[in-house]
Amino acid sequence: MSTTPSGAGDRLVQVGAIVFFVGALATLVTVAPLFLGTDPFPTVAYGVSMLMGVGFLIAGAGVVRSVWTSSPKRAADRT
Predict the structure, then answer these.
(1) pTM of the predicted structure, to 2 decimals
(2) Could you give the CA distance from residue 8 to residue 57 in angstroms, rounded to a whole number?
(3) Per-residue confidence of the chain (79 residues) as pLDDT tens digits?
């Protein structure tokens, strides 16, 4: 367990990573029929694959939020 306090965007980065990996898993599942020679999955499965990009955007927003709140100008304004 970490003793350092969590930053402003840490939770967004964690959620973004989880969403990204769910989307990556869905991408692997939807591509598998191409290699196995079976029928492709329905269109909804390909929509779940889009979670990979959404997770990347959520994690990026968390990084931007962390940088924004820890900038020297913002730190000077808080004191």
Answers:
(1) 0.77
(2) 16
(3) 555 556 778 899 999 999 999 999 999 989 888 888 888 888 888 888 899 999 999 999 999 998 888 777 766 666 6
Cα 33 to Cα 28: distance, rounded to the nearest angstrom: 10
Tell me how far apart the alpha carbons of residues 59 and 74 are, in angstroms, rounded to a whole number. Answer: 21
Tokens 């931007």 sit on residue: 64
DSSP 4: S
Place of tokens 């898993």: 25
Token couple for 29? 């599942």
| Residue 41: DSSP 8-state | P
> By the 8 A CB rule, do 30 and 41 touch?
yes
